[in-house]
Give the backbone structure.
Amino acid sequence: MNHHFIVLVSLSIFFSSSNLYAQPGGIAGSRPYEPTARQIITEGLKTTGAYSLLEGLVKKTGPRLVGSPEAAKAVEWGRKTMEDLGFDKVHTEPCKVPHWVRGLVEEASIITSDGRNIPINICALGGSIGTADGGITAEVVQVKSFDELKSLGEKAKGKIIFFNRPMDRSKINPGEAYGGAVNQRGAGAVEAAKAGGIAALVRSMTMQLDDVPHTGSMRYDDTIPKVPAAAVSIIGANLLDSLLAVNENLKIKIRLTCQTLPDVESANVVGELTGTEKPEEVIVIGGHLDSWDKGHGAHDDGAGSVHVIEALRLLKELGLKPKRTIRAVLFMNEEFGLNGGVAYAKKERPGEKHICAIETDAGGFTPRGFGVGADSVVFPKFSQWSYLLDPIDAGRITRGGGGADISELAKLGVITIGLRVDGQKYFDYHHSDNDTIDKVHPRELELGAIAIAVFCYVIAQEGI
Amino acid sequence: MNHHFIVLVSLSIFFSSSNLYAQPGGIAGSRPYEPTARQIITEGLKTTGAYSLLEGLVKKTGPRLVGSPEAAKAVEWGRKTMEDLGFDKVHTEPCKVPHWVRGLVEEASIITSDGRNIPINICALGGSIGTADGGITAEVVQVKSFDELKSLGEKAKGKIIFFNRPMDRSKINPGEAYGGAVNQRGAGAVEAAKAGGIAALVRSMTMQLDDVPHTGSMRYDDTIPKVPAAAVSIIGANLLDSLLAVNENLKIKIRLTCQTLPDVESANVVGELTGTEKPEEVIVIGGHLDSWDKGHGAHDDGAGSVHVIEALRLLKELGLKPKRTIRAVLFMNEEFGLNGGVAYAKKERPGEKHICAIETDAGGFTPRGFGVGADSVVFPKFSQWSYLLDPIDAGRITRGGGGADISELAKLGVITIGLRVDGQKYFDYHHSDNDTIDKVHPRELELGAIAIAVFCYVIAQEGI
């Protein structure tokens, strides 16, 4: 794109949305809160506040696996950051969390029928037991579904079960593609054991062709024997698939040293701008402070954690005093049991009423709008504000939404809302060493914080 | 984000838009072309067609500065690619283009008053003359505007003029921020010379903190002496700014070996799906084949070039036969004179009528919609189709838009349209060594091609 052209028409080409500001409807009154939204947008974009917060978190903690010393440091970071920014009533709220550790060794290799030993990149799935000291060596059998596994009968017994159904890339929404594949990760170990298998090896949950394994949680069933479960990188999975086609009796050796230690005490971090008129009416804005022990946990969910801190910072910086309370909550252990979300919802808060809760846990990408879990009567109370978000192309307010951490609040009848962002890259990084801060764009991250600040502020002023 | 949650609600959180498919309005008839749009979306996403094309272009040519052997190779690549894909009436249309060459040396250093010599990263601006063989060494004076330069009077004479007004990051649209700074690049040399300066050094047009210079075109005025002009990286510009604050008589040495050679013959590449019912009515879809001689020219405008080829490929692959002609044009020399755009518009095409032209020249990022340069009477003929693009979140069809290459068609009364994409990263890469193919996401790129395919197909079927 050359400069003569862009100077002439950049406004109309790139920027049609913000021309709304200049429309006759833009005057205060007919489009209330428009000047305020503009203030928040300008204040946010002029610096890189959210990104600086994320740098602070990442430098202080690195990845923050629940129960780890790094997660404890993250709690301290969250508390101190909110205090330093002058938020109201900053405190932590305790919750007990699991403490699974990866251990020092996780390795695997393919042993071909002609005797070659080919290392592949794997990692234990969260919650998995380890292998025996010397590892497991066994023949491998590939399946694409649990039904296919069941149909194998005796052939699965004593084998390592390789679950290799890819995410369906023809889906527009990578989240839907993920949803169509991830039962292999969550339930693979149980299904493998039911079929007589001795371990589960699962294709990483990504559409990216990369060589890093993507971890994530798995679960056992106390009535079924526990077998180890690991993720293999896409390149490793594709190699294994190819070699299986030409090798009979292909074996894999897996060694994992992960284990589950006793539960530990951890906490949510809470701070707010207390409402000036109806402080007892609360809007929660939340992300989760824990991450997997891979990369930096930058998009998942460092981004969400700093989104909500930055949203409050922007309101405070501009001297905007909400009539109702806006409360930022950094939840502990979204990834591995929702202990923080449960603890927050269960805690007695006499006199308080939560009018809605907004979660951001889809990464620090450009925001597109909000998904609102409200019925058709209440929904327009939220969607009416889309014009305030249209200038940053984040005005698509749609029905249905929420978040894992606030799902316990939803059970109590609180309206839950999820920030929707541009999702095409999310699973490239998700739960892997690729989820590092350099994958986060400062302005895209800031726009997410801005979207939350605008939306929660107008809800705090107008209620529902 | 954990998997239990996402499996339950991924549709509603990430994917609210595509739920449109399931709405009662989704039946054929009430929402025409919806099944066709869905076919195009699914076909596009299941492979990485656009990205594979871009890999082909980049491997074949690298960057493609107008007039260069690489640009000639790109023309050949475009023609052969369209022929191999079986498009109709594939041909080239000649145009004469300028041939500026960067030369082997472009270097600069700051010479401090205490005698240090600090190299900084610069590059010649496109069209600049070179320096004398030994380079230019002179004191430097910093200005933020042409008015400030004028106010310097005698102090500017004999100096190197350092134009250091940054892009305003508080603007939502980086294109607007660019528009507010780029006159320093385009007109800096002329203004420097008017003030008695002997060279122009311009802060790179990016908001990213990086150390690569971002080039782009500049222009001379035949009535004003020509002085050399170069861009300096942001880190170099910030350093120079800091050193100027504490150094009197700071000097810079610049050496450039760029020069303008005689014009050469080049060409646009044209291929189409000829209309089955009204072949004489033409919808142009275009990007530009030339790029700057930095990086790969991947986003600017390799992305646009492959967008339009891929759009036709998708329609052809699905057996969709447009009633009106859809013509892909790879324009030559958008960056440096619009020769291809002018030649296309001037060529006699007896019996043909262009009903609209769509340009894609904002990068291979996630599409958001189209900007349509039509009046309020005709605009609804385009905006009525937004529901077909909503499933990929690209349904914001707004007034005002076009593109540089099709601006000559606009002068002839043709309705011009620009693809709008997520623009926050565009100037991070623009015109620099950072504009490489690894910055392009295969699915985001594909979605741009899909958006164009859907939009041009429905226009081809329904007309305006």
In short: The longest strand of chain A covers residues 259-273. The first helix of chain A runs from residue 3 to 14.
